[in-house]
Amino acid sequence: MVSTGSSSSAPTPAPEGGAAEIVVGLLSHQHAGTVADVARAVRDGLARHFPARASRIVLADDGSADETVARAREALAGADLLEISAHRAATPLELPYHGMPGKARALHAILTRARALEARVCLVLDAGVTTVSPQWLPWLARPVLEHSVDLVSPYYDRHPYEGALTKALVAPVLRALYAVRLRQPAAAEFACSGRLAEWLLEEDIWQREGAQVGIDLWLTSAAAAGDFRLAEASLGIRTSAPRAEEALDLATTLAQVVGSLFADVEARVGVWQRRRGSVAVPLFGEPAGGAPVHDVTLDAERLIESYRLGYRELRDLWTWILPARTIVELGRLVSAPPVGFRLDDELWARIVYDFALGYRLRVLPRDHLLRSLVPLYLGWLASYVLQVRDVGAGAVDERLDQLGAAFEAQKSYLIARWRWPERLRT
Amino acid sequence: MMQEVERGLRLAGTRIVDSIAALLPGALVLLVVLVVALVAAVSVRYLVVRSLRGLELERRLEPLGFRVADWGPSRGPAETAGSLAFWTILAIGLLLGLTALDAALPSRFALAVLQYVPHLAAALVILIAGGVLARFLATAVLIGAVNAGVQQARLLSLAVKWLVLIVAAAMALDHIGIGRTVLLLAFGILFGGVVLAAALAVGLGARDAVGRAIERQLHAPAHDDKLDHV
Fold first, then answer.
1. What residues in A contact B142, CB-CB < 8 Å?
2. CA-to-CA distance for A231 and A144, rounded, in angstroms?
3. Which of A297, A330, A332, B92 is most buried by a 10 A CB count?
4. How large is the angle between the packed helices B104-147 and B153-175, nearest 10 degrees?
C-alpha cells in the first residue's frame, strides 16, 4: 500500500447539492483491512493532483458484515466527502471470481451517483487492492479530463504467466471482435467519462443473467462496441488483500469469465460482425516494465499431462463442439514431445470461436461446455509457458500481439460459422 | 312332438336374437369408441411429432447421449414419442370399448388394466427422467474428474451413470409393484456392498493418500500464492 498518511490536505468538496467534476467510487465487500488505506490514498490523490476541481468519494459497499463502512468513515472523518451506498449482498450459489456477489448493483449505484452529480469523470477503485497510490488518480482521470478519452482501462505490470486466461482468450477475442487492443479488459479499476457513464446506465447489461459476475467485462465491451475513445493507464503493480474465503478453482473461474464473454459475444452480434481490423489504444501513466510482484512457476509438463488426459477422456464430448479437422490436429499434439509442444495460434483461435458458437447453439449444457474447455486452455498455457519462459517482457508482448493477430485473422471463420451453423461439424 | 321341436327351435332363435340384440348396442359403442380413439390417436401423434420437431428435440437430446442412430434407421425421438402416444390412446380406447360390451371378463380385465395405467405411466416417467439425469451427471462427473486430474475419470463417470440408472430402475419397478420385496432387498445389499467395498478400499488401500489430501486441504496455500488466471 502506498499511502502518504497525510490528513492535513483535503480535496475540494462538491458544494452541497451541486455538481462534482470528479467522482471516485470505491467498491467494497468485507474489506475492513484495506479500505481505510485506499480511502486515504484517494483523498490524498484528489487533494494533491486535483485541488481546484470539485470532487466526491462514493463508497458502494456490497453488504459487508465487518467494519468496512465504519473504517472508511473513520479514514475520511471530517472531510464530508464520503457518501455511502450500501447494498445487501446477494447469496449466489457460487462466489464470483472477483469476490463481490453484488458487484453490478454497486457499480450501477456509483455510476448513477456520478450522473446525478454531473461528473466529468468517474473513477472506480476496488477497496481490496493494497497497492493503490495517490498517483493512480491522475493516471486514470487525466486521459478523460485532458484528452477526451471516454474509458481508461488499467494496464498492470504482471508476471508473464499471470492473467493467462485474459491473455489467451478474453483480450484476443475483444480485440478481434471490437477492433480495440486492450490488454486487461476485465480489470476491476477504470475511469470513464460522464458521457460514457450515462450511456452505460442505459445499456441492458445490468439486467442480463450473470451480470454480477460479468459486469467488469461487459462495461469494457459496451464501451468498445459503442462510439467511444478508449485508452490504457499503466498503474504499476496491483495486489489484492487475501480473501477470507477459499479461492475458486480454475474450472469455475474459467466458466464464469468465458461464459460472460460468450454471453456478450452473443448479445452484440450486430456490432462485431461489421468491425474489421484493430487499433492500438494510447497508453498513459508510467511505462510498464517494473519487477513482477512475485515469482510464478508453472510446470509445463504437468499442464501437458492435463491436456493429454482431457483429450483422452473428453474427445468424444468435444466432437459436439469442434469440427473433425480440429480434433485431428489436437490428436497430433497428444503425441508431441513436451519440448516441441506447440498449440498453434490459429488453431487455438478456431477452438475458442467454435466454443463460442457451441455456447450460442447450446450443443451441450453450457456449464459442461465451458468446463470442458479447461484442458484445452491448459494445453495453450503449456505451449505459451514453453515459448515465453526464457524471453524478456518485450518478446512476451510481441508473442501476445501475434496471438491477437491470429484471432483477427480467424474472425472470418467465426462469422461464417455463426451465419451457417449447420456446417458446424464439417 | 313336432310342436315341441318347433317351440324349442323358436325359443332358441329368440334367445339368439335377444343375445344379438343385447350385444349390438355394446358392439356399436365399441366400434364408435374405437373410431374416436383412432381419430384421437392419429391427431395426437401428428401434434406430438410436429411439436417435438419444432422444439428440435433431436438436437437437444443428442448432447445428452440420446443419439438419433439409436432410434433406428427411420425413427427419431419425435416419431417414437408420437407412436407411443398413438398406441397408448388406441389401447385405452380398446379397453374402454370392451367395458361397453357388458361382458364380465373383458370388463374386469379392462378395468384392471386401466387402473394400472397411471402406475405404468409414472414408472415410464421415472425411467426417462433417470436416464436423462444419469447421462447429465455422468458428463458432469467426467468433466469434473478430468479437470481435477483424476486418471480414472471415465470409470468414475460410468459408476455414477449406472448407479443413477439402477436407482431409477428400482424406483420404477417398485412403483408398478413388481418384486417389491426382492428388489428392495437386492438393491439394499448391492448398494450397501458397494459403499462398504469403497470404504474398505479407501480405508485400507488409500489411507495415506487420503491423509495427504486432507492435509493439503487444511494447509492450502494462501490465495495470492496461486496463479491468478484472470
1. 313-314, 317
2. 9
3. A330
4. 160
Instruction: Determine whether the interchain pair A313/B154 forms a contact, defined as Cβ–Cβ distance below 8 Å.
Output: yes
Q: H-helix or E-strand containing A284?
A: strand A283-285
A248-279 pLDDT per residue, tens: 889 999 999 999 999 999 999 999 999 999 99
CB contact under 8 A, B229 and A372: no
Q: Which ranges in A273-336 belong to alpha helices (H)?
A: 300-318, 324-334
What range does the domain containing A405 cover? 300-423
| Percent of chain B's residues with pLDDT above 90 | 25
In the structure, what pLDDT confidence band is assigned to residue B187 with cuts at 50, 70 and 90? Answer: confident
**Partner residue opposite A253 with nearest CB, options B63, B149, B230:** B230
Q: 3-state DSSP call for residue A293?
A: coil
For the range A78-81, what are the long-range contacts, defined as Cβ-Cβ under 8 Å and sequence gap of 24 or more? Answer: A79/A10, A79/A11, A79/A13, A79/A43, A80/A13, A81/A10, A81/A11, A81/A13, A81/A43, A81/A55, A81/A56, A81/A57
Q: Do A136 and A267 belong together in one domain?
A: yes
Claim to verify: residue A311 and residue A181 sit in the same structural domain: no
On whether any CB of chain B is under 8 Å from the CB of A213, the answer is: no
Instruction: Name which residue leads in pLDDT, B209 or A43.
Output: A43
Closest CA to B152 of A402, A89, A309: A309
- Express each pLDDT in A129-174 by its tens digit: 999 999 999 999 999 999 999 999 999 998 899 999 999 999 999 9
Q: A14 at the B interface (CB within 8 A)?
A: no
Across the interface, whether the CB atoms of A372 and B143 are under 8 A apart is answered yes
- Angle value at C-alpha A219, between A213 and A225, nearest 5 degrees: 130
- Least confident residue range of A38-52, A79-93, B129-143: A79-93
Residue type for A379, please?
A: G
Domain end position, chosen among A232, A260, A285: A285
Amino acid B106 reads: P
User: CB-based contacts of A199: which residues, under 8 Å, 6+ apart?
Assistant: A222, A226, A228
For residue B63, the chain A residues in CB contact (below 8 A) are: 320, 363-365
Mean pLDDT of A19-40: 92
Smallest Cβ–Cβ distance between B147 and the set A163, A170, A374 belongs to A374
Residue A2 located in a structural domain: no
A363/B147 Cβ within 8 A: no
Residues of B in contact with A242 (CB under 8 A): 222-224
Last residue of a domain, one of A233, A261, A285: A285
Helix spans in A226-299 (H): 250-267, 269-272
**Which of A216-225, A375-384, B145-154, B199-208 is predicted with the least confidence, judged by mean pLDDT?**
B199-208
Measured between CA atoms, how close is A425 to chain B, in angstroms? 13
Query: Do A264 and A122 fall into the same domain?
Result: yes
Look at the block and give the residue holding cell 478456431. Answer: A350
A378 shares a domain with A253: no
Q: Is B63 in Cβ contact with A363 (below 8 Å)?
A: yes
Residues of A numbered 115-144 whose beta carbons fall under 8 angstroms of chain B's beta carbons: which are they?
Answer: none
Q: Give B57's contacts in chain A (Cβ within 8 Å).
A: none
- Residue of chain A minimizing CA distance to B58: A363
Distance CA A208, CA A221 (A): 14
Of the listed ranges A99-103, A143-147, A178-182, A184-188, the least confidently predicted one is: A99-103
**Nearest CB neighbour to A97, from listed B60, B62, B230:** B230
> Do B228 and A162 lie within an 8 Å CB cutoff?
yes
Give the minimum alpha-carbon distance from B226 to chain A in angstroms, rounded to a whole number.
8
Put simply, the answer to whether A246 touches B229 (Cβ < 8 Å) is: no
Task: State whether residue A257 sits within 8 Å of chain B by CB.
Answer: yes
